[in-house]
UniProtKB/TrEMBL annotation:
It comes from the Bacteria. InterPro entries: Low_temperature_requirement_A. This is Low temperature requirement protein A. The chain crosses the membrane at residues 27-46, 66-84, 96-116, 122-141, 148-165, 171-188, 200-221, 233-252, 273-295, 307-327, 348-374. Keywords: Membrane, Transmembrane, Transmembrane helix. The keyword Lipid metabolism does not apply. It holds the Pfam family LtrA. PANTHER family: BLL5714 PROTEIN.
Length: 378
């Protein structure tokens, strides 16, 4: 059967030297992906709620599940981001396939809360959809990224196997899938990925903004059903201030510096820098926002926090700062000792939450503002 013309047309890759901006369908795709990420807060919060019992439950189980699920999700998000960077989604067929990929992410989002407890098959099916659609995009264009498809399919098979396996072997299969995906660049090589720096910088910047919105949503969820008392309003404003300070950490410097750092190097070196700065270094930043949002959600409406939420709040800010330091060092952007020190101090802030949730959030805001002020040129 012949494919219709609108589907079979091949899109030519855009030159890496040409200007490429993020399209609206990519932003739409990111909104669905971020919903998938926000579902991970249910696993983190699960560590703070009813105690887990039974042979297959253990302390920190939600955190481990979050790391494994996020790891495989982030790999495929990057796969779509790199693909649309190389081949802009301007044709109807490409847009339709991206919409199908969004459906796969939505299926996974719905399955995340029970991915290790009965919902593994649904998650694996959603993952299979995004992997197949990702591979199907090469009906439109063939690029070097196609070499990762066998690795993606093998990892999907491992996730399917995990759905039919009890712990601890299910965790081992998930971990094997994650290792297979994340090490694949070193097996397939990094040549031939002619990426557009401006698009990469803009796409990930927009993603960070959308994910930070989860912290604002967490404020609303935490305040749900509460009377807007002065105490609640102050707590909500502190949560907003913390999110704003984290935003400033990421975007407060020259927004063009990262793009210039990528443009100064050759294509192969550029791919290595993008892999280090925008794939690996963004992992702790995004996980940090997830943990921070889980802590803020528990802090709103409560005078003090239990040990779990207070640690999540402290660790979330610390992870974001650590990822930002990593990101800046990969791209050799201006940085000093203030941010690494702030990451350590943020991690040590959790005892404050046991006394007062407002005190911990307020201290983290002051810490971030002081860090940013210390970095300002004299």
């Amino acid at each position: 059967m012949r494919l219709p013309l609108w589907f079979a047309e091949r899109a030519e890759p855009a030159s890496p030297e040409s200007e490429l901006r993020v399209s609206t369908i990519e932003l739409f795709f990111d909104l669905v992906f971020v919903f998938t990420v926000t579902q991970l807060t249910t696993l983190v919060v699960g560590d703070f709620t009813a105690p887990r019992t039974g042979a297959h439950h253990f302390a920190g189980q939600g955190a481990v599940q979050t790391l494994l699920i996020f790891g495989v999700l982030w790999w495929m998000y990057a796969g779509y981001a790199w693909l649309t960077n190389a081949i802009p989604p301007r044709r109807t067929a490409r847009r339709v396939l991206i919409l199908c990929g969004m459906a796969g992410f939505l299926i996974m989002a719905l399955a995340i809360p029970t991915a290790f407890d009965g919902g593994g098959v649904a998650f694996a099916l959603g993952y299979l959809v995004i992997v197949v659609v990702h591979g199907g995009l090469y009906l439109q264009a063939s690029t070097a990224i196609a070499r990762v498809v066998p690795f993606n399919l093998a990892a999907t098979a491992l996730i399917f196997a995990a759905a039919f396996t009890d712990a601890p072997w299910s965790y081992a299969l998930w971990a094997a899938a994650l290792v297979l995906l994340w090490t694949s660049p070193y097996f397939i090589g990094q040549r031939g990925f002619a990426l557009h720096p401006a698009h990469i910088v803009e796409r990930h910047g927009l993603l960070v903004i959308i994910v930070l919105g989860e912290s604002i949503v967490a404020i609303g969820i935490g305040a749900s059903g509460e009377h807007p008392s002065p105490r609640l309003i102050v707590a909500a404003l502190l949560g907003l201030a913390l999110t704003a300070a984290v935003w400033w950490v990421y975007f407060g410097g020259s927004e063009e510096a990262a793009e210039h750092a990528l443009l100064r190097v050759d294509v192969v070196r550029r791919t290595q820098l993008i892999l280090g700065a925008y794939f690996y270094a963004h992992v702790p930043m995004l996980l940090g926002v997830v943990a921070m949002a889980a802590g803020v959600k528990k802090a709103i409406g409560h005078d003090h926090l239990d040990i779990g939420p207070s640690i999540a709040l402290a660790a979330g800010v610390a992870l974001f700062l650590a990822g930002d330091v990593w990101f800046r060092r990969v791209l050799t952007l201006r940085s000093g000792t203030a941010r690494p020190l702030a990451a350590v101090l943020a991690a040590a802030s959790f005892p404050l939450g046991l006394w007062s949730s407002a005190a911990q959030i307020g201290a983290l805001v002051v810490l971030l503002v002081a860090t940013l002020a210390a970095e300002r040129p004299a």
